[in-house]
Please model this.
Amino acid sequence: MIAIDERGYYGEFGGAYIPEMLYPNIEELRRHYVQLMEEPAFQREFRQLLKDYVGRPSPLYLAERLSEHYKATIYLKREDLNHTGAHKINNTVGQILMAKRLGKTRIIAETGAGQHGVATATVCALMGIRCIVYMGAVDIKRQAPNVSRMRMLGAEVRPATSGSQTLKDATNEAIRDWINNPEDTHYIIGSVVGPHPYPDMVARFQSVISEEMKWQLEEHTGRENPDAIIACVGGGSNAAGAYYHYLNDAGVRLIAVEAAGHGIHSGESAATSVLGTKGIIHGSRTLLMQTRDGQIIEPYSLSAGLDYPGIGPLHAHLIASGRAEAISITDDEALASAYFLSRKEGIIPALETAHAFAALDKMEYRPDDVIVVCLSGRGDKDLDTYIRHFERFQK
Amino acid sequence: MNRLDKLFANKRQDILNIYFTAGHPKLEDTGKIIQALEKAGADLIELGMPYSDPLADGPTIQQSGQQALRNGMTLPLLFEQVQSVREKTEIPLILMGYFNQVMQYGEQRFFDKCVEVGIDGLILPDLPLYEYEKFYKEMVEQAGLGISFLITPQTPKERVRKVDELSRGFIYMVANSSITGAKGAITEKQLAYFERVSALKLSNPRLIGFGISSHDTFATACRYANGAIIGSAFIRALDGAEDVEKATAGFVKSIRGIEASV
Model:
């Protein structure tokens, strides 16, 4: 049975390793999050916004040309069709409603590629709440269009200039902001990471993905369960959402696809399940990339959404217990897969998502296998990267 | 009786606890600064284990840690430095650091090593009370190490009592809901919090830290607790100093308020 305990542990992973200064905020959330989310009025508002504002349910699409190529039945869960272009908004809609009920008037968030920052700025605009997004100074340069989007939506983008100036440092800065502003501020974490109750809360908001998959698969195939679900994992929120209602169905293989960058052992990788060891990052006991002395290592991936040095505690548990299988995909494999999917199905995926599709090449199938790939985001934001590498992949 | 207990048995007021980051400004400064602090009249030293991701620390301490790591500081080296200075000093030494480093070193091995090299107590700000009590309390107490947990203006009364029950040595009273390195005067609201905690008649001594940066703030804190902790202000004094020993002596004097009279 895969479940979280009341202290926020999945097996040995999770918990809330936070300084005392954060205790009141985390404790307030821990005590109230389940009860608040389950209130009928909350659910009504949440569901209504997911339907009318986000555009849910997202389609489950039978990818016939891809199926023919791999000799299996492959469905795509189209999170790329959501408002703002990725699954991230499922969580920010949920958390902004939570923040309102907790009486918070100021929102902070961290962002790497900018997708979660845009999704947070969007719901803050929707609710008329002040929004501050921390983003590594290096990422601000790499992801200029998303910085502009956030600003256009009314958010203030603050550069994180500490450490390596990327996602982990943006997260550190957001946590420091929360320590300094404990009373009026809610921190919208973008993935299933951080101290309890965040990993569980975010997984619950994202679980709408697998909730829809169940009835959609039933409609398409006459059965609720696929044989395998494939999703990319940085922190792991789209994977957590796609797995959620299948966690305890042992017949459904869960495939977690990580970024291997230039190769797992190249020294430039983000394959946490292979390279990571047990430790604490951002308040959670999980697997992370670190030196023997316990200093956190800056990971590498061409995709800014997968270069997080840790992994959500749920995924650490799923992988350590053997419930999920981890597959690592290099930059080049992901790029090749993005070009392939674009030609085969007319869908340009986000570079993160392209990693999930590349895993199809590494799997073996029975002819009657039904596979769902979580198409977590669209590729507009990665167009520069795709254009830069395009020639190299034309044979 | 370890040095920490001895200190508090003999002295109950105006206790000056100075924090600095091991291996900063230069790798070999750790021992020198410890000895200079003792000579200048600090009562207690909190030695920071430099960390890549110090969540509770402001820019000053973050940067000192980054510098120390660039200088080549590691936990094994820190233990060596402490062991060698321990032969020359009796000042109580506390290690402050984030729990991930303790985990990687091996918890039991870490506590044993602390005792072996002459560390007297620990501050591990991201180790929660629950996990401490469940997994590590017995190890720490058997090793005879002190351990200080934090309270803040938002910590509820029952939790303050729990902190008092689990702390050994002293309680770390965070003056302000903030990261380290705040500046400025102490507010009425903070004084009310200091008084509220005083009235609880806790069994551990209390030291106030975060935002204590001058003679005035130190003196105010000492009126409401057994003493105070200064970190960022001292690190700023060390930064760019030509002679860290002189800078240390000058800083302690300025805090004690005897600069002019000596």
